[in-house]
Amino acid sequence: MAKIWHKIKSVFIAEPEDAYWDQRATNLDYLVKRHTGEIIVDPTTAHLSLDERAKMAVGTVDFETMLADLEISTDYRSLNPNDIVVAVCIGIMGVGAAQLTNHYADALEEKFVKLHENFKPKDKGPSPLDYRAGGNHRSIFGHDFNLNQKLPDGYTYGGQDVGGQSVYSLVLKYLESNFPGSSGLGLHLKAILHILTHYLSDLPTTKGLPLPFSSFFTEWKEDPTKATGYAASNPLMEALGDEYGTINAADASTYAVMKMLLLSYGAFAHRGLDTPEDEKELHKTQLAVIAYGTALVIQMLLLVTGTLGRTGKLNYLIAGPFLWNSARSVLIVHKQHRQVMTHYEKSIAVLNDSESNFDDWIKTVCA
């Protein structure tokens, strides 16, 4: 009955990690002493488990002490319950950063607009990035980092034919005509800063920026009733909506805060330890998976329940790292598994060697 109860407990109640390894060390010490004749087998204990017999014969052997006696490094760091709690908290703080950024979005937008004005001619009309007007103009043209996107032939803006020209060429002409003397590298630098600061000023808004290169799905149709001569739509962005098809300042702040906290905690967790590089990378990758996964789940729950406004959305800036670290952790574990199999082969070879002793076997296994 006691054995049945022990098996039931082992299924539902995990054994503490330290206790598990101490028991393995105890069993090894017991078996070695039986092999060398230091301990005589007692027939009256045959009904007991190996764990029970080992404890009765040699007491509890500390696993860390055994490794130290064998001059084996114990500088390893694996994921523990405290790490999991910290990673979850980092995910929660990431969502908090998003909410805080959204709360001060108007103030951020005002600051970024002022920054953009340093790279935009005064009183010279809108930027070419806004040559497509309207509520969803960002998902149509000029706001998705596709600087080679072209307006359709015959497209007019402000009475001028600007069709057939790319986003970047339009910006260059706009700055060249309004900043006399600008040319060469200086002109291109102004164009890049004009585009980047324009995007930056749009980030804190509710619409944010569309997904990079989503303008490949823009469809233009001639429409004489429109001032530009064209109507336009983007089926992809219409299907995704703001919740699944945009990136905003809150997304960026979430990623920045979480990345900083993960780097800081990763360095703290391995301080003073000579942890093997692959073990360190696996540990940091596991922390990242838990943290990013926590933030993703919370934001999607907020989206489903409709709470905290626009904080509830799909954040691609953490979804990407989540998938990357998930795949990376699998690859690292697979690599370690192959190394373990190699060690097993070496271990078997040592066991089959009659001239090897127990210490040789331990050092081979733990090398």
Quick synopsis:
The chain crosses the membrane at residues 287-308. The protein is mainly alpha-helical and 367 residues long.
Task: Please give a structural write-up.
It is a single chain. The chain has 367 residues and is mainly alpha-helical. Among the domains are: 15-69, no CATH class; 106-245, no CATH class. 60% of the residues lie in helices and 4% in strands. The protein has helices at residues 2-12, 17-36, 50-58, 63-69, 81-103, 105-117, 167-178, 184-202, 235-245, 249-269, 277-305, 316-351, 358-366; strands at residues 156-157, 160-161, 209-210, 219-222, 230-233, 246-247. A two-stranded antiparallel ribbon has the order 1-2. A two-stranded antiparallel ribbon has the order 3-6. The chain has a two-stranded antiparallel sheet with strand order 4-5. Helix 12 runs antiparallel to helix 13. The model has no long low-confidence stretch (mean pLDDT 88). Keywords: Membrane, Transmembrane, Transmembrane helix. The chain crosses the membrane at residues 287-308.
Secondary-structure map with pairings?
Elements: H1 2-12, H2 17-36, H3 50-58, H4 63-69, H5 81-103, H6 105-117, E1 156-157, E2 160-161, H7 167-178, H8 184-202, E3 209-210, E4 219-222, E5 230-233, H9 235-245, E6 246-247, H10 249-269, H11 277-305, H12 316-351, H13 358-366
Helix pairs in contact: 2-3, 5-10, 5-11, 6-8, 7-8, 10-11, 11-12, 12-13
